């Protein structure tokens, strides 16, 4: 059975989990602690420490750079999902970069400020240390203070997505593609704490999110 090695609130893990669910693929998740990546390190033979990682029999699959989509492409092939159509080559790469950098860059902070509700107490110390080493001392307090501005910023960043949905049910086509799952994961992370909703003005995006949440893919296999 496919195993998704994950941190449950990680945006990148949420992308893969939703693809697996929508494909109705038998899989199980294995959660790793924030501060202990020894399992990932061992599985990848000391080549990777981040999540997600996918294990499928003898295959261990993980990303090769910031913008690779090795896991999603592996699942796309393995389950014959057609999530990366050739006609959108190039365009989809630009979109997932925007989602994983611009949107994720604001969304994860808005979720992280509620970490005490999502992260087990024994992991608070490695969690805060990890954030502060990357973003500076007191970053979580700072993000908490900037919450209002960050919500406005996210609404602004999501305007192009709302516009894309003006004439079709999904971002690029009349069916869901990888880019839809990708944006879904970034937004599922933003809303993971339960303290945030999608910007009220973006009504098409809200309906799109509900569709994605329940989506079952037509399997080609
Ligand atoms: N581009 C990678 C990014 C993966 C990533 O940054 N994962 C985070 C968790 S959200 C992580 O494990 N970072 C390394 C660390 O925490 O030490 C992907 O799409 O999977």
Describe the structure.
The two termini are 17 Å apart. Strand 1 (2-6), helix 1 and strand 2 (27-31) form a beta-alpha-beta unit. Helices cover 52% and strands 8% of the residues. Helix 1 crosses helix 10 (178-190), helix 4 (91-112) runs antiparallel to helix 8 (147-157) and helix 4 (91-112) runs parallel beside helix 10. It has helices at 11-22, 38-43, 70-79, 91-112, 115-118, 124-135, 139-145, 147-157, 159-164, 178-190, 203-214, and strands spanning 2-6, 27-31, 53-56, 59-61. It has two domains: 2-79, Glutaredoxin (3-Layer(aba) Sandwich), CATH 3.40.30.10; 86-214, Glutathione S-transferase Yfyf (Class Pi), Chain A, domain 2 (Up-down Bundle), CATH 1.20.1050.10. It has 221 residues and is an alpha+beta fold. Strands 2-1-3-4 form a four-stranded mixed β-sheet, with helices on one face. The protein is built from eleven helices and four strands; from the N terminus they run E-H-E-H-E-E-H-H-H-H-H-H-H-H-H. It binds glutathione. Glutathione binds at residues 7, 10, 12, 49-52, 63, 66, 130.
Short note summarizing the structure:
This protein is an alpha+beta fold. Helices cover 52% and strands 8% of the residues.
């Amino acid at each position: 059975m496919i195993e998704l090695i994950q941190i449950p609130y990680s945006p990148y893990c949420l992308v893969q989990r939703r693809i697996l669910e929508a494909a109705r693929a038998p899989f199980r998740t294995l959660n790793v602690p924030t501060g202990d990546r020894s399992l990932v390190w061992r599985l990848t033979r000391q080549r990777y420490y981040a999540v997600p990682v996918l294990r499928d029999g003898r295959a261990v699959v993980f990303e090769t750079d910031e913008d690779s989509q090795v896991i999603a492409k592996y699942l796309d092939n393995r389950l014959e999902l057609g999530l990366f159509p050739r006609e959108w080559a190039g365009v989809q790469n630009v979109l997932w970069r925007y989602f994983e950098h611009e949107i994720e860059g604001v969304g994860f902070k808005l979720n992280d400020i509620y970490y005490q509700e999502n992260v087990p107490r024994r992991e608070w110390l490695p969690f805060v240390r990890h954030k502060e080493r990357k973003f500076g001392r007191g970053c979580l307090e700072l993000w908490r203070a900037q919450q209002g501005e960050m919500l406005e910023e996210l609404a602004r960043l999501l305007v192009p997505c709302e516009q894309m949905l003006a004439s079709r049910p999904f971002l690029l086509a009349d069916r869901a593609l990888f880019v839809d799952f990708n944006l879904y994961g970034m937004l599922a992370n933003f809303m993971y704490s339960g303290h945030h909703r999608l910007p009220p003005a973006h009504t098409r995006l809200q309906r799109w999110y509900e569709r994605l949440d329940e989506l079952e893919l037509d399997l080609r296999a």
